[in-house]
């Protein structure tokens, strides 16, 4: 299987080089070439590892779980955030869905936003600092990284959200499996801060908590979907009572 993949990669690389000599000046569109190569490699990867996915049959869904723990290096004044981040990808090439379920914030955090990103390394051994910079396989500015999930609002001391359309993958050469999800103390300026840090990390502040994205079965997702539906129903009922 590995030898076959290598052969495909070499063929894809040769095809890309041939195409480039016909259509572009050397080095004039490196980013585009990298993107083309990424698409080709992803297609080959998908063909080799998920042959059943096109039919939507068993094995097409991909799931991960990430058990969020407070960073070992946060200050005593910072909230100790714990919880769960789940991802689901219904087919290779599809956008990600996520459940985020975090607690440990205090009432004074209600109504404030927290940035959440995927960082490069799945290493939390020295606190969340060990996870490195944003995962950035294509060398693009923030907030175009695959794990730039933006801002999430704290309410009732917790942060819970179901999101769709996330621009990251659990399969292929740019998979986020084995990398880290980091919850920040501040808000993501989404690259509009006007300084270098803004286009690297959104000036999102200290790293409160983090976890490593690991492959799992469908059960955690099913449990979280039920919990989310019940919580949303309760929240709506409370809103109605308050109105
Ligand atoms: Cu981050
Ligand atoms: Zn980023």
TrEMBL record:
Its cofactor is Cu cation; Zn(2+). It comes from the Eukaryota. Residues 81-213 form the Superoxide dismutase copper/zinc binding domain. It catalyses: 2 superoxide + 2 H(+) = H2O2 + O2. It is an enzyme of class 1 (oxidoreductase). Keywords: Antioxidant, Copper, Disulfide bond, Glycoprotein, Golgi apparatus, Metal-binding, Oxidoreductase, Secreted, Signal, Zinc. Residues 1-17 form the signal peptide. Binds 1 copper ion per subunit. Destroys radicals which are normally produced within the cells and which are toxic to biological systems. Protect the extracellular space from toxic effect of reactive oxygen intermediates by converting superoxide radicals into hydrogen peroxide and oxygen. This is Superoxide dismutase [Cu-Zn]. It comes from Loxodonta africana (African elephant). The gene is SOD3.
